[in-house]
Amino acid sequence: MHYPVMTERQLAARWKISLKTLRRWRSDNEGPTWHKLFQYVRYHEADILGFERQSAQHWSTILGDGERVPKVDSAAGTA
To answer: Are 45 and 53 in contact (CB under 8 A)?
Structure first.
């Protein structure tokens, strides 16, 4: 059975960020909505998808139509 929740480790892996970053966001009241189930932190998939959609719209607005978020070429280390 699939439950529509993610652990903080699953979300960190999905976004390729550290657990420390997610934990800092929580302490700063940033990032997606999270829930505490007993001693465990969980994120609802709907909240994650909503946050991703909102973030994409935010970057679209900042960069304007037709522009993309710059990608870093890990081999060369430049954008």
So the answer is: no
Q: Which long-range contacts (CB under 8 A, 24 or more apart) does 45-51 make?
A: 45/4, 45/5, 45/6, 46/4, 48/6, 48/11, 48/14
Above pLDDT 90, what percent of the chain? Answer: 61
pLDDT value of position 57? 79
CA–CA gap between residue 42 and residue 39 (Å, rounded): 10
